[in-house]
Amino acid sequence: MDTSTARVVARYRGKYRVKTDKKEYWAEISGKMMHDAVSAADYPAVGDRVNISTLDDDLAIINGIEPRKTLIQRKAAGKDEPQIIAANIDVAFIVQAVDRDYNLNRIERYLALALSGRIKPAIVLNKADLISEEKLNQKISEVKDRFKDTDVIVVSTLDDNKFKDLADKIAGQKTYCLLGSSGVGKSSIINKLLGKNVLETKEISFSTSKGKHTTAHRELFVLENGSSIIDNPGMREVGLVESGEGIGVVFSKITGLAKECRFPDCSHLHEPGCAVLAAVEAGELDRDKYENYLKLKKESDFYSMTRLDKRRKDRSFGKMVNTGIKYKKKR
């Protein structure tokens, strides 16, 4: 069997598509990898670079994952462990549809998700052709005012002039991914970048005002300039894992004010001498942003505590088992 390095370009249930410099293979993970896996994070994700052994012209076995440089992960629904969304990403495009999906708090959640994985984020306001110029300019102003340090790109896949800014941002040999809810136009953006319709697209449901799922799995596409872009299924729930670093960057004004609080462990809820609350009351800090900060921080802290408690319980259980084994041997 020949061995080589490949990149995971798609993941299905139990199967993967991997791509070397020369060709693509259908692949499965080795029995050893499956045996050694402790959590979902030990399985390959789209964007991972993996070591493979080729079986024939079309099949390969994945033997291991190379160290990940960056990672986007969220809390898996109903589980305590993280779900890997994509790996080795350079830039995450956070896509919002300005006609229906537009939500500043949701943008902050996606920003925290990207920054926690040490990935550069950029905000893409899509479907700019569907609202008036006046409303569009108002939303652009709101986003730029709230996210001063993040690139904001306004696009329409139906207007080449309004799509050029996004296309110009994509440099060769880098990997990008699209994050956003269903129906915001991620698949249409990828079709436009590829210059052909490779992904099915659907409009937002007018009966529910919610996006319809078009992408059923994560997939990496290689563009003509050598860059890669990953399409993700729409995420209606984006649970944060240990995202303290990302939250600190997204809410840098709040974390800066927190240093001026009277108490070092201030929760910014009711304590006297809280500089954050004082800024909210004085109108210097947007109340909606403040409340979203509390919500995301509580979510991230709760996840971290839950994981820590679980590890403590696992260690305690391990000690109990070892004690039992020693006692049995003595008997």
Automatic annotation (TrEMBL):
PROSITE patterns: ENGC_GTPASE, G_CP. InterPro entries: G_CP_dom, NA-bd_OB-fold, P-loop_NTPase, Ribosome_biogen_GTPase_RsgA, RsgA_GTPase_dom. GO terms for cellular component: cytoplasm. Residues 68-238 form the CP-type G domain. Binds 1 zinc ion per subunit. Zn(2+) binds at C261, C266, H268, C274. Keywords: Cytoplasm, GTP-binding, Hydrolase, Metal-binding, Nucleotide-binding, Ribosome biogenesis, RNA-binding, rRNA-binding, Zinc. Belongs to the TRAFAC class YlqF/YawG GTPase family. RsgA subfamily. This is Small ribosomal subunit biogenesis GTPase RsgA. It comes from candidate division WOR-1 bacterium RIFOXYC2_FULL_46_14. The gene is rsgA.
